[in-house]
Amino acid sequence: MKLLVTNDDGIDCVFLHELVLGLRAAGHELAVVAPKTEQSWISAAKSRTRPVRSTKVNRGLGCPTWVVDGTPSDCVNIALAHLVKARPDAVISGMNVGLNASLGFILASGTVAGAFEGVLHGLPAVAFSQDLSFETYDHLKDHGGAPDAELSATLKTSAAHAGRLVSTLVAATPPQGFIVHNVNFPYPCRPDSPLRRTVPARMVIPGLFSPAADDGTHRFVFHLGQDLSPAEPLTDRAALAQGCISHTVLDYTQLGRVA
Predict the structure, then answer these.
(1) Mean pLDDT of all residues in 73-89
(2) Strand order in 125-130's β-sheet?
(3) Which one, of 104, 105, 47, lies nearest residue 74 by Cα?
């Protein structure tokens, strides 16, 4: 398959690079168009009030690669209109640094939004995210984005799962179906980690900013929120807690549907 790949953690993120390797190992033909810098929690924002620059680069990914000084949505929009020569079969976004599970995280995610931009162009789309422990995330950030041995092994395993899943998920998507497949890998992810169909957890996530400091500024403070989900059906967060790969079908045609 011909795939356009983007992410929201930036062109140099090892999570993106491992995903590309996993997709290429599965035989897919890729073009990568990713943001110059991290664009997490930016959702579907587009750079409306300033020019956006795209530059062809070599990051050793073995496929045509561009960097865009904008958002994930910018990347996909510009790529499909101006950069890739042939229309891809699908848009793939990720692999995100951390989970994109539950309504609050899905709607805020630049990774999911990058996939959704593909949907707005009539293409199937898949968003891949890698759950992490707080300790693993802190270690990653403290070491300049370089994973330790355990995380590196998980990324390779998750990327191999992604390479196998893409063809099945894209084939299951109707033409112009307005569907994003949101896939979250558990930590650690194993070759035999089972795949489960899930729904987004219902989380309330208030208070994501600190009180004002002396200079009047507020700082972002991450937390996972409070889960208000019923016991059934299985949610994305619950599946990850059980060590399963979560697959949620985000069907945007169902928004506002009258029962």
Answers:
(1) 97
(2) 54-57, 65-68, 29-35, 2-6, 90-97, 125-130, 179-185, 245-251, 195-198
(3) 47
Rounded Cα distance between 212 and 36, Å, is 30
Average pLDDT over residues 221-239: 95
> What pLDDT is recorded for position 258?
83
pLDDT at 257: 87
Cβ proximity of 79 and 66 under 8 Å: yes
pTM over 0.70: yes
Specify if 214 maps to a domain.
Answer: no
pLDDT in tens, 157-169: 999 999 999 999 9
Question: 176: which residues sit within 8 A by CB, 6+ positions away?
Answer: 122
CA–centroid distance for 76 within its chain: 13
DSSP string, 85-124: SS--SEEEEEEEEB---SHHHHHH-HHHHHHHHHHHTT--
Place of tokens 């630049």: 110
Domain count, the chain: 1
Q: Would you say residue 143 lies in a domain?
A: yes
Q: Which domain covers residue 34, as residue numbers? A: 2-209+219-254
- CA distances to 39, 113, 166, 225, 228 from 66, rounded to whole Å, are 16, 18, 22, 36, 41
Q: The domain that contains 172 carries what CATH number?
A: 3.40.1210.10
Summarize the confidence of residues 180-200 as an average pLDDT.
98
For residues 227 and 103, the answer to whether their CB atoms sit within 8 Å is no
- C-alpha to C-alpha distance for 235 and 250, rounded to whole angstroms: 13
Tell the residue number behind the tokens 């790949």, with chain if given.
5
